[in-house]
Design brief:
6 helices, 4-stranded antiparallel beta sheet, about 180 residues, alpha+beta
Length: about 180
């Protein structure tokens, strides 16, 4: 029943999505992994027709509001998750990078990989993205506030626009790390 309730029924409608790291592991406590997410956003915007409306990168999950314009939303999500997973795991394994949790992280992501039917040795992202179609202006505002207030609820910042890895500052006209397609 749960998985039936959260399915993408319109591949080109605007959706609120959540990408959760397996085991809620705090992978995005490192800047280089957050930057991989931003680079993948940029690539998907430039090459896959993604419209990124809002985002926040928390320590163990990412919330976004996306619209697919060229490829299906499912295809864009698959490509985004595949690329970011491979790049983050490559960066973790790179002995030239400082990563105090390298062995533990690889062990944990391998553990999650063994619990799936996929052929991947490691599994970074959980399978459910909890897609919710943005069906009204009120719902859109609710989700925008939810995304942008996530760092406040986590006790990281007092003002949403002070959190660097979020689109909150874009919505306040201050710019941000990445350009977003603002919702009205």
């Amino acid at each position: 029943m749960f998985t039936e309730g959260f399915r993408i029924r319109d591949q080109f409608a605007t959706h609120f999505l959540t990408f959760t790291v397996e085991g809620w592991i705090d992978i995005f406590s490192r800047q280089r992994y957050r930057d991989i997410i931003l680079e993948s956003f940029k690539f998907c915007i430039a090459k896959k027709g993604l419209r990124l409306h809002a985002y926040v990168i928390m320590s163990n999950h990412v919330h976004v509001i996306w619209t697919a314009t060229e490829k299906s939303l499912s295809d864009v999500m698959r490509d985004f998750k595949t690329f970011t997973s491979k790049e983050i795991l490559r960066s973790i394994a790179d002995k030239g990078e400082v990563e105090s949790r390298r062995e533990w992280l690889l062990y944990m992501f391998e553990f999650f990989g063994k619990r799936t039917n996929a052929n991947d040795k490691y599994k970074l992202w959980s399978g459910n993205n909890h897609p919710e179609i943005i069906h009204s202006v009120d719902f859109m505002k609710t989700k925008l506030n939810y995304i942008h207030n996530n760092p406040i609820r986590a006790g990281i910042v007092q003002n949403a626009s002070d959190y660097l890895y979020s689109s909150a500052s874009n919505y306040e006209g201050k710019g941000g790390l990445i350009e977003v397609d603002l919702l009205n």
